[in-house]
TrEMBL record, chains A, B:
This is Prephenate dehydrogenase. PANTHER family: PREPHENATE DEHYDROGENASE, PREPHENATE DEHYDROGENASE [NADP(+)]. The keyword Secreted does not apply. InterPro entries: 6-PGluconate_DH-like_C_sf, ACT-like_dom_sf, NAD(P)-bd_dom_sf, PDH_C, PDH_N, Preph/Arog_dehydrog, Prephen_DH. Gene3D superfamilies: 6-phosphogluconate dehydrogenase C-terminal like domain (1.10.3660.10), NAD(P)-binding Rossmann-like Domain (3.40.50.720). Belongs to the prephenate/arogenate dehydrogenase family. It comes from Tersicoccus solisilvae. Keywords: Amino-acid biosynthesis, Aromatic amino acid biosynthesis, Membrane, Oxidoreductase, Transmembrane, Transmembrane helix. The keyword Transferase does not apply. Pathway: Amino-acid biosynthesis. PROSITE patterns: PDH_ADH. The lineage of its organism: Bacteria, Bacillati, Actinomycetota, Actinomycetes, Micrococcales. The chain crosses the membrane at residues 12-32. Residues 14-303 form the Prephenate/arogenate dehydrogenase domain. It holds the Pfam family PDH_N.
Amino acid sequence: MNPTLLKKSAHLHGPVLIIGTGLLGASIGLGLRQRGIDVYLSDASPSAEAVATDIAAGSPLADAPADLAPELVVIGAPPDVCGSLVVEALRTYPRAVVTDVASVKTAVLDDVRAAAVDDDAVDVRRYLGSHPMAGRERSGAVAARAELFTSAPWVLCPHDDVDPHAYRTVTSLAVDLGGVVTTMEPAAHDEAVALVSHLPQVVSSLLASRLQDTPAASLSLAGQGLRDVTRIAASDPGLWVQILGANARHLVEPLEGMRADIDRLLHTLRAPTAPGARLDMAQLIAEGNAGQARIPGKHGGPAQQFAWLTVLVDDKPGQIALLLTEIGSLDVNLEDMRLGHSAGLPVGMVEIAVLPSKKQSLVDDLTGRGWKVVA
Amino acid sequence: MNPTLLKKSAHLHGPVLIIGTGLLGASIGLGLRQRGIDVYLSDASPSAEAVATDIAAGSPLADAPADLAPELVVIGAPPDVCGSLVVEALRTYPRAVVTDVASVKTAVLDDVRAAAVDDDAVDVRRYLGSHPMAGRERSGAVAARAELFTSAPWVLCPHDDVDPHAYRTVTSLAVDLGGVVTTMEPAAHDEAVALVSHLPQVVSSLLASRLQDTPAASLSLAGQGLRDVTRIAASDPGLWVQILGANARHLVEPLEGMRADIDRLLHTLRAPTAPGARLDMAQLIAEGNAGQARIPGKHGGPAQQFAWLTVLVDDKPGQIALLLTEIGSLDVNLEDMRLGHSAGLPVGMVEIAVLPSKKQSLVDDLTGRGWKVVA
């Protein structure tokens, strides 16, 4: 099978059945409904299903015709139960394509293959796992939104036996919802997300957990650095237990690497004036520089260095808008933006990133219009 | 000495001598010059001094009158040389108050006390260390700005022998530059910044260094989580070597704590289906939740949960401005804001935080005006 030949997708026709109506499942329902596709919803939790129905992500499965033959079944359940729900869907709907959106892919495929050994109804050719890279710190249908997948990577993880029709159907789902389709082997996917998604979660949680007994006076010195590093530590333990458990094998190696680096650093910090200690510490920070510089920038393009400037504004309604209106009227595109968190005074600092070629004229123009700009 | 009695500060009169004209030293010079205070500058590096002079942060020390008697000497040098420069300033200017702005305080005070033992000219009563919590990823006078300290905590670290006049003078410096003055013992300060500033830097660098050999296809799956956790990994190795070296003793304990947690997690990940494994993983994430929730919010107030909503905008000049203009016209204050980084499509997602009481009406109003809002 040549994946490039299969990437052409038609639109989905439906109906689509979504089993598991959390954040991802309900968001998929909302997006498909907006495109006029019939969606049925089912969740092991009646209240979760009711919330998804209330926000118009689809109709309850109980209201579906008895001979419902979905074009596509989407399993929106967490990793623990995902495999068995895929198997059940393949059995129940013998003509449907089945996908899932769990953030770990090898374990689900293993479950399906294991069930297929003794049961011809579990037709692995109709299953294609996928993973839209679109999470939030909040979970559940209450946080769902049709645009959740817009412009985000949506990874398809084909196995050797996947049917071209299944490939086209799942591609259509991703494309219809605005995702950017990429393809990876399941194991390569799991290894990748261990490093770019699961390890950052672990690290953020480990750091934040150090703050449980920190005196409030110490925490009052916290700056944007600490806030950024710990933001995702607010994530849901229930979901992350399943993700970490399902991808445990790929997390061990990078985590062992980090532990070895910590051991090296501890050795250095215990004798910070010993020969070579300074070099060790500089190397740690420099290696971080090198890794950080490789992370791609906005819109999936190569990492790009923007030029930053800072503008002081009063922290009251309309000031930032006024500033951005001026910037827009100068025909400069805002590449990134950050609001400075200040302590105790009603002044905001707006840090603005623009293309380097635009910076100097923007500084001049804003200053000329009376803004307090620091380049 | 009762610190509360001493917090009343008069304005500085000057002249002020700044030794070490990097980011902090040059920013202090700029701020004081804007307030009409005479500033002289000196740096071991002639080019660093020249840059600071060029941006009008002060005049070269070589141009000062021979009988220069500064009211205040500010040492803006990194931790390594800070102590000896404080000692030298106390000797050279027998009537000046001397402060420094290094991010580690115990080591500097130790250096001064050691030098004072044999030399009456090293009058420790005239020295009061301080630490403005206002760094940037960029360093040097080129990144300096007069407003760097506005609304940021500025920690004074008094010792038992500090003179009330020195206390008032350094307080005046911090207040004149817009800082929010707080007071901490030097050791308590060093312990606090180890946890809220230095450990986050180490953790961010350790994580980012794992990405040095990651395939580009894997990195293309990076989301906002990874970007946030690794942002400060772009920091300057030269400066951080000195900070980590000077505060090594306070970093060992929290880093050992993290390593113990990693060992516990590795044990769990190697046998993720063993009894208790799930509980261990859930506990790690839940402890992170608890620590993260304790970090104070904007303006130094208690941690506050804002209500977030997301608006889809075209990624072209003026769109975000237009949106914020509408929000301002509805008299709603923007508490925080985040631009969504998307991959491959020219659509931006603006996440906006407002007071919870303002959210529903804002969603309704914006939707009514034609914006694509997801609450």
